[in-house]
Amino acid sequence: xxxxxxxxxxxxxxxxxxxxxxxxxxxxxxxxxxxxxxxxxxxxxxxxxxxxxxxxxxxxxxxxxxxxxxxxxxxxxxxxxxxxxxxxxxxxxxxxxxxxxxxxxxxxxxxxxxxxxxxxxxxxxxxxxxxxxxxxxxxxxxxxxxxxxxxxxxxxxxxxxxxxxxxxxxxxxxxxxxxxxxxxxxxxxxxxxxxxxxxxxxxxxxxxxxxxxxxxxxxxxxxxxxxxxxxxxxxxxxxxxxxxxxxxxxxxxxxxxxxxxxxxxxxxxxxxxxxxxxxxxxxxxxxxxxxxxxxxxxxxxxxxxxxxxxxxxxxxxxxxxxxxxxxxxxxxxxxxxxxxxxxxxxxxxxxxxxxxxxxxxxxxxxx
Length: 367
Prior knowledge:
The protein is α/β, with parallel strands linked by helices. It has helices at 11-23, 34-43, 60-70, 87-96, 111-118, 137-157, 165-179, 185-199, 203-222, 228-233, 257-269, 280-289, 306-314, 333-342, 354-366, and strands at 3-7, 27-31, 48-52, 78-82, 100-103, 249-253, 273-277, 294-297, 324-328, 346-349. The chain folds into 3 domains: 3-123, 3-Layer(aba) Sandwich (Rossmann fold); 137-228, Four Helix Bundle (Hemerythrin (Met), subunit A) (Up-down Bundle), CATH 1.20.120; 239-366, Response regulator (Rossmann fold), CATH 3.40.50. The chain has 15 helices and 10 strands. α1 links the parallel β1 (3-7) and β2.
């Protein structure tokens, strides 16, 4: 059985990490400091080390450097755990020799797959990263309309003296980005027209915002997709997918599960293999551990936005050459320029045409 050494001065964190490793089917030893861990390494080398950044005397980075210097031939892989994740810290960890850095508290759905990947087990990290099941297009549309109607109803019920304009802004932005992609361009148009009213709710325009939300509510309950033939078939338009012995692998990162589903539906219908996540740090670590053929990346995401993910990808040797397509609701030229400067291969705005997205990915992989 393969063994992992967990190095953490916090006994509770140590037990949690070791417990997750054991739940994945691996043995886990523990140490409270870098010095104690180095003594254990002298007796028996584990297959993987998981170390906290904060350690007494010797921190996790210095400990990693010590491991790598002692085993220059085939060094033990090291995963760094930190309570204050930042992209700068991730880069420093990689420079020190770590395979990746993960934020505490650990994600129990991500961590076991990552451990399995570095230990060469049959499970792969990419198989652990799709929290949203791939749905046929008709079900994606039904899900969009039903969840959006419920959200719009809640916003209307709270409309008045204590209106949550931030929640309205986020909802309008999401509806504008998803509607047209799923075949409801009128929803995108209406939501986009209302966004400025929510961002700057002057007294004489608040009534217009309320009326606009009521109009959207009506759309969510009565809308029919513009391509009814596609909707009735429950999938994308017919397309001949050539047999591929090794279909290219695409990572998808978008915090909206409906957008992830639409992107994945389009690309898998074209013969690509896809995995998706709504978390930028997860996608970066997946790409670092097992580089895909291309990445589709949103900009506006919580915790780690698309720009930070892109910066990280282009500053790590084994993901530097992976083409990245930025797919975002932002039409700002500044965002387009920033994406290009950071190394994005292409930039596409939402709502997007699924066939156009497939064409962009096809061209990226032909280069």
